[in-house]
Amino acid sequence: MYDDKNQSLFTRRSIVLGTIGVGLLGVVVSRLSYLQLLKKGYYALLSDDNRISLRFVPPKRGKIKDRWGSVLAYDIKSFRAVVNLEILELNKIPLRPYLEKLASLLNLTEQDIKNILKEKKRSLKFIPLLLKDNISWADVAKIELSLLDMPGVLIEEGTRRFYPFKEVFSHIIGYVGIPSENELKNNEGGLNGNLKTGKSGLEKIFDVSLRGEPGVRKVEVNARGRPIRDLSQEKPKEGQDFISTFDLDLQQRLMEELREHPSATGVLLDIRTGDILALASQPSFDSNLFSENISQENWQALQKDPFTPLINKAVGGLYAPGSTFKMCVALAALEKGVIDEHTSSYCRGHMMLGNHKFHCWKKESHGRVALREAFQRSCDIYFWEIGKRAGIEEIARMANRLGLGSLPFLGLNGEKRGVIPNKEWKLGRFNEPWYMGDTFNASIGQGYVLSTPLELAVMTARLASGGKSVIPRLSLNEPFSPFESLGIQERHINLILEGMNRACNEPGGTAYAHRIQELDFLMGGKTGTSQVKRISLSERARGVRKTHELEWKLRNHSFFVGYAPIHAPRYAMSVLIEHGGDGLNSVPIVQRLLLAAQKRDFA
Amino acid sequence: MFLRVLENYTIFKPIFLLKNLRWSIVLLISIISGIGFIMLYSAANGHLMPWALPQMIRFLIGVLLMIGISAINIRFWRHLAYLFYGGSFLLLLAVEIIGNIGMGAQRWINVGFFNIQPSELMKIALILALARYFSALSVEEIQKPKFLLLPLFMILMPAMLVAKQPDLGTALLLIMIGAGILFTAGVKVRYFVGLGFVSLCCLPLAWCFLKSYQKNRILIFLNPEKDPLKSGYHILQSKIALGSGGIFGKGFQAGTQSHLNFLPEKQTDFIFTMFSEEFGFIGAICLLSLYFLLMLLSLKVGLESRDRFGKFIVMGVLITVFVYVFINTSMVMGLVPVVGVPLPFVSYGGTALLTLLMSFGFLLGVDLQKHRKSMT
Lengths: 603, 376
Fold this sequence. Notes:
The complex is a heterodimer of chains A (603) and B (376). In chain A, helix 17 (380-390) packs across helix 20 (436-443). Chain A is built from 23 helices and 19 strands. Chain A has 603 residues and is α+β, with helices and mostly antiparallel strands. Chain A is 39% helix and 19% strand. The radius of gyration of chain A is 33 Å and the shape is elongated. In chain B, strands 1-2 form a two-stranded antiparallel sheet. Chain B is globular. At the A-B interface, helix 1, helix 2, strand 1 and helix 3 of A face helix 9, helix 12, helix 14 and helix 15 of B.
């Protein structure tokens, strides 16, 4: 068992290990001396009777600007009440009764108290807990005075989001708020309960870059938790400013125009870049209400309003496009080669399909019309004819190519995609075959066809650009890449544009009364009357079609899509007035906005 | 039958134990544990509950266990070494499986009235098994690489399982114990150099296997100011408490940092911080000296022992204590990342205390062996 060689080897190696061990212990001892002997003064300062408390310093959220630099959203100073939980613990004060004592002072409701208690569970005890945000300066003084005998409560300076243009941009910019449980769980970019996050609109889409990074302030506090002095501060990192594609002036004008109507919406695009210059939905709401923590009554009122101010109708409203859809039908027929520019049909005011009589909108008949006149006067008979020849599949494909029912989402809240029906769709949706009558309805933008005003603006832009795949965008921060061609024959598109030109600028055209009269700025366009067989915006609307008796009660929606100038198209626009009656009624809004946009360029 | 076997290996004569047990080691352990009781009493603001009293009871049970183990002939443990290792490994595996099915990171098995933590058993089992393996080989054999394969497996398999639990501290300890025994057994130095190099290369790979909070700990260790609100907070507060203790400390129960709850987990991993805050540099040096003395005495046992099995056991126990002390103290001072490692005999916690006392039971048994020889 005993063996001399092993013995000495073990001894030798044990001593080697022992030496290493002594060396490592030496490191520990020298570190100990460093901390306790050399740095004692420094750490004693941090410790002593006063202690360090860590304070969260919110970053300044980036501004949101319009394309020319006007500020649409920024942070303003506000005050908030917080409580230092450590102090409560030290003084053995339970939180709930403490909050109840504070309730009258800070105007806390029972629900607020519940929320605070919930927040406490998930927050770190050494970060002061938020009690109330956005306290006015007048209240601050009052509270400070009455709080002298409440240990732990502090008034901190913070920020609040301010939207100077109130309801003008609400649907686009959205608002910010305290993050929800879920948002915290995803925790993108270091979100925490003290940091506000974008809840909708641009604030939400571009939240991470707008948000910035919070800083930390080390504060020396006394035993009562009152700050004595700052020890160090890690500066918060400001969020990046966001430059949107919007034009404040045009957006305000659009909003003013829309305000004339109880419920309306419009979109103005720059054709070359897809920049959304203006996008508004009426009625709107004031974003500031949300950043100040909206009251229950205000919230209820917004939700119950029959004109749905919380819905952005430009991207979330689904409407039958009416005659504005005729461009897709004609282009489909031209591309398929089943008609040419001379193809004509005779309108006697109605047309028979089997034993069902289809009426043109004009009972007295249009007489013989070819493509251009059909657009000019929006003859339904003509489009039934050519729609029949093109077939629904071809029409649907063309509509999709022009952006209807196929646009990528911008990220705005409540966005919807339009419905472009075809045989497969109907079979899947209703388990029914496609009838010729369905093609007729679709050919004049009725029946199952639905689209959003944004989609129609994009369709117009794609046509006016000579067939480029214009894609709308909200951000000027991203680089722009030129649009590809959709591969549609130029002369076909030119025929359509000529038709739209005649609808506006030839006597007898449906929009002639409201044409732009300054020669340099002429617009082309197409009216649309969207039959209200279904209540737009409501989900159950799709496909429920038992509203014949309602038809006379509810006026039709009024659509107009237009572009300008006709010689070198630059702007495209769509406007919808809910129950605005005739398509003609929405033309003036487009006319004035397109004119303003063109003149703005020269300014 | 088992009792008969045990009889063969046991010395029942109390006089033998009283006379030959290395009381200096028992005394040192008691003093260090006593310091622990005092600190746990202080941590509870001058109360025996919830920590000091249970710890004292566990200590008494553990000391009895320690002396009982030492009274049994070390050869008996040698016989059982592989069986013990196998059993511990199976338990570890079971915990892994049950843990996966059950509630996430489960490190123990509940057996009615107490919990078994297989990773703790594994430490002892690994020491015993490696000691037996190498004691059966000659130095010439040990220096051949083919004899290294099995012990490497014996070390790495449980280490990997424990790391997966995830308990990085214990996994690291298992590897250190293994490496220490391998080294003192006489494995050629160049293998260690090679292995060190290989593991250095594997470091980036290991990084991928770490849980995100573990990565975080290491990142925060490298740059503690990065996250002063969360993990970095502990280290920051620990350094303040420790540093503000100065030469003489703030006095018993007068550590402001720890008593005002600025210091987290003051009764377990951060107890050294509290001790140093209250008793200062002098106190800390005294405590470290006690550990040093304990290790010195243990090393003496190892060097004096004529039984290679015993020598390796001593080495294993020594390394365990050393690693605990070193990692715990340098962790609270911000020298190494925070891994949950207790301060031996002082930190609150039953399992660690019992395991340590049991380990010292083996060590004392090794020491008694030489007297046993002369008796029979």
